[in-house]
Every structure is written in structure tokens, then in C-alpha cells.
Amino acid sequence: MEPATMAWTLAAAGFALVYWFVWVMGAAEVQGKRAVDLQMGSIADDKVGDRYSQYWSFFRSPKETAAAATADKVPAFVDTFYNLVTDIYEWGWGQSFHFSPSLPGRSHREATRVHEERVADLLEARPGKRLLDVGCGVGGPMRAIAAHSGSDVVGITINEYQVNRARSHNRKAGLDAQCEVVCGNFMAMPFPDASFDGAYSIEATCHAPRLQDVYGEVFRVLKPGGLYVSYEWVTTPLYRADDPEHVEAIHGIERGDALPGLRRQDEIAAVAKEVGFEVVKELDLALPPALPWWTRLKMGRLSYWRNSLVIRALTLLRVAPKGVSEVHEMLYETAHHLTRRR
Ligand SMILES: C=C(CC[C@@H](C)[C@H]1CC[C@H]2C3=CC[C@H]4[C@H](C)[C@@H](O)CC[C@]4(C)[C@H]3CC[C@]12C)C(C)C
Ligand SMILES: C[S@@+](CC[C@H](N)C(=O)[O-])C[C@H]1O[C@@H](n2cnc3c(N)ncnc32)[C@H](O)[C@@H]1O
User: Ligand 1 centre and the CA of 93: distance in Å?
Assistant: First the structure.
């Protein structure tokens, strides 16, 4: 190749690479988090490795799923998990840390909004009502519900880093007068009895070792007649405890999502009744005509590979703290367990 052609080819390739990086970071910035700002929550850079091994020690022996460990260690373990993953979730998924039924012809962003607004509608939320968001993450659902219904929303999360992220997003969205965020344990909430008109939890109570502990607390802080909506993670009747492939997939999901043990679908309503609720409605949102709930996760595989490269480069350049790559690999593996099929 002529030297001039070679120079032009290299320049074009360099330009394409830089454009790609800018595009990657730009795209993430729209969601509020850029690759160059990835942190490990409130963990100091030199402690990331320790905390990551501490997270894994929870699952040390293959038989010892977190369910066998003492329940009182779970909130600290979940807090460590969210220090490790919150920024990667925000960067690669957005401000709503949950799945949503895919809607044909609609974007993921729209499907997420519809799924969150459904909660507000089920709760009959309106201006003047005070709602509780049980396990609020960085507040994506809280802002959608407050904006859609005009209600006030108080969110609680075990993770201090998420509290700061959520407050900052609330301010930027101009919703800080309506949305408040508190750091605390949803199994021992710092709220008086009968202090909320309605409550909801979105893919959060699966972190509780005993569902009674969180549902009981929600029942206590709700006013009599108040409604509670919960989107739960459960195993379906198709799960076979005697099929090693099923068991391995569920264990993989528990390990990669800080879950002390997934519950069966039929256990949920029974627990709600046990703590005092009347069960008004129970729906399986994953049934057709909804597309499979993992559709979005499966479709993103190419971008996870790209994310992995970006993270490796940033770790090498010491822009991202050591350990981000390992956590990202763990999430990649989790995505595999969540989407794998026979
Ligand atoms: C309810 C919970 C969280 C559910 C989901 C929000 C997350 C479950 C798995 C996560 C992800 C997996 C793969 C990541 C990918 C490798 C990375 O490049 C970008 C982020 C991911 C897509 C990440 C995003 C969030 C999840 C989909 C649990 C914790 C109870
Ligand atoms: C998967 S995230 C879902 C967040 C939010 N509901 C959403 O959909 O964006 C689970 C949330 O539950 C919170 N959580 C888990 N265990 C908790 C506990 N014991 N007390 C309070 N919050 C908890 C986590 O901190 C996290 O914010």
C-alpha cells in the first residue's frame, strides 16, 4: 500500500474509533451516566477487590445459597451488591432497574414508562396522595409515577449511593418537591404506622430473606384501606427442582442478582394474606400476548460486548476503578442465566 493511502486508512480508522467511543459515551450520557464516570458506589477505589470477594463469599459453598446464610447479613450483602452494580446498571440500562413487558412497535423506554404508570393507575394515585416506593433504586419509577399521577412519593433504599443518585436525578427532573428519598431497611422502616395512602415495590422484595418481614412492614405503614402493588420475581410452575439445568440457571440468577433465594409464584399471595392484606388481584405479566420478559436483555448482547471493551480500556487507562471489569463480567454471566433456553 502507498504510504499516503496507508496514512489515510489509518486516519479514517482512528476517526471511526474516536467517533465510536464518543457515540458510546454520548448515548450513555442521555441516560444520566457516562462510561468515564463509572464508580463502585461508595466503595473507596482500593477496597473494591475486598468488597467484591466479600460479595462472593456469601455464596462460597455451592450448596450454601444465600438462603442458608443468616438472614440478618442479607441487607449488608445487598448494599455491597448495589455499590458494585448501580453505575453499570444506570449506564447500560437506564434509571429504572427492572424489566417491563415488551410492547410491539414501542421502544424500551416507552414500555418501561407504561409499566411504571400502570402502578400509579392501579393505586388510584392522584395529587394529595402520599405513596411509598419500597426499594426505590435511583428513582426511575418514582419520577415516572410522581409525574404521571401528581402524587407525592417517598422512596426507601438500603444503599446510600443510590439515595444520592436518586436525589440528584429528582432535582434535575424538577421533581424534588414531590419526591423524597430515605436510606433504610425495608424490613424495619423508619416510618410511623398508617403514614402512607398507597405503596408499591418493583422487583425489590426478592432481596428479602423472608417476604413476611417486608410485606408486614408495608402493611403497618399503610393507612387502613390503602392499596399495595408489588412486581415480584418468582419461579413459575414450569420450574423443576429435580432438573439440574433448571437448578443451575436459578442459582446463577441468585448469585448475579444478590438474591437470598427465589420464591415460587404461588407463595406470594399466601404471604400477603398472612400479614393482613386482602389480595384483590394477581396477574402473570409475562404471559402472552406480552413478548418474553427477557427480550430486551437478549437483544442487547452486542452492546454488552462493546461495553466490556470500553470498560477494559477505561480500567487500563485508570479512569475506571479496578474491579469494574470483574463486576461487568459477572453481569454478563447473569444476563446469560436470565436468558438461556434449552
Ligand atoms: C431486579 C433486579 C435487576 C434487574 C435488571 C435491571 C438487571 C438484571 C441483569 C442486569 C444486566 C445484565 C447485563 C449487563 C450488561 C453486561 C452491561 O453491559 C450493561 C448492563 C446490563 C444490561 C445489566 C443491566 C441491569 C440488569 C438487566 C435484580 C437485581 C433483583
Ligand atoms: C432491582 S432494584 C429495583 C429498584 C427500583 N424499584 C426500580 O425498579 O428501579 C432493587 C432495590 O431494592 C433495594 N433493596 C434491597 N433490599 C433492601 C432492603 N433490605 N431495604 C431497603 N431497600 C432494599 C435496593 O437497594 C434496590 O434499590
Answer: 7
